[in-house]
């Protein structure tokens, strides 16, 4: 019940395309759903986050879509750029922050 | 720069040994978290301290222990090391005790040979 399942494990997108990463959770007590971005040699950094009282949050090219009934949420990266190439982690928290397995995104020029 | 400092950046040791990883949180942050990152397990939550007290525990082995000192820095002690303990260990800090944004350090890469 504490798991957060993330897919796909890796993703290759052409520059200008849309990157979509999906996550699912079981614990209905989770009330905070952030996405973290990690570059090689660095620690994860918060990218965008959502709470379950809204279905969508957009910040620039990054959008979180949240489906409370399905217990799923996703990250959409519009107009993907080579600089977006990184590992992305979804997470969920009802106290301690539980991370998904990560998605390695590669954006090809 | 997140403001979270971890030392050392790299650590190479042998099986059976004991090591200490150190973390200085961002100025003003009262919570410190430890995570283990490996290729097959992803980012695993180990333990959280808030203002010197243990707040939450995750998948932390009995061979591992941590503490947070009065100046709020934290140490993660790993003993009787095994090959499988080789991983990247991250410290993170936050202002609040639960939820909210975590600020991660750059990690300590532990290699057990």
List the helices and strands and how they pair.
The complex is a heterodimer of chains A (about 110) and B (about 110).
Chain A: E1 4-7, E2 10-14, E3 19-25, E4 33-38, E5 45-50, E6 56-59, E7 62-67, E8 72-77, E9 86-93, E10 97-99, E11 103-108
Parallel strand pairs in A: 2-11
Antiparallel strand pairs in A: 1-3, 3-8, 4-5, 4-9, 6-7, 7-8, 9-10, 9-11
Chain B: E1 5-7, E2 10-13, E3 19-24, E4 31-38, E5 42-50, E6 53-57, E7 64-68, E8 74-78, E9 87-94, E10 103-104, E11 108-112
Parallel strand pairs in B: 2-11
Antiparallel strand pairs in B: 1-3, 3-8, 4-5, 4-9, 5-6, 7-8, 9-10, 9-11
Written overview of the protein:
The complex is a heterodimer of chains A (109) and B (113). Chain A is mostly beta strands. Chain A contains no helices and eleven strands. Chain A is globular. In chain A, strand 4 and strand 5 (45-50) form a beta hairpin. Helix content of chain B is 0%, strand content 53%. Chain B has no helices and eleven strands. In chain B, the strands form two sheets. In chain B, strands 2, 4, 5, 6, 9, 10 and 11 form a seven-stranded mixed beta sheet that branches. The chains are: A mainly beta (109), B mainly beta (113). The A-B interface holds A 31-32, 34, 41-46, 49, 89, 93, 95-102 and B 2, 4, 33, 35, 42-45, 48, 56, 58, 90, 92, 98-107.
Keywords:
heterodimer, A: 109 residues, mainly beta, six-stranded mixed sheet, five-stranded antiparallel sheet, 11 strands, 0% helix, globular, B: 113 residues
Structural class estimated from helices and strands of chain A: mainly beta
End-to-end separation of chain A in angstroms reads 39 Å
Distance between the termini of chain B: 31 Å
Order of helices and strands of chain A: EEEEEEEEEEE
What kind of oligomer do you see? heterodimer
Identify the overall geometry of chain A: globular
Largest sheet entry of chain B: 7 strands, mixed
Q: In angstroms, what is the radius of gyration of chain A?
A: 13 Å
Radius of gyration of chain B: 13 Å
Number of strands of chain B: 11
Given the structure, what is the number of helices of chain B?
0
The chain pair forming the largest interface, with residue counts per chain, is: A-B, 20 and 23 residues
- Structural class designation of chain B: mainly beta
Order of helices and strands of chain B: EEEEEEEEEEE
Describe the largest sheet of chain A: 6 strands, mixed
Would you tell me the overall average pLDDT of chain A?
94
> How much of the sequence of chain B is in beta strands?
over 45%
Regions of chain A with pLDDT < 50 over 5+ consecutive residues?
none
The helix tally of chain A amounts to 0
User: How much helical structure, as a percent, in the residues of chain B?
Assistant: under 10%
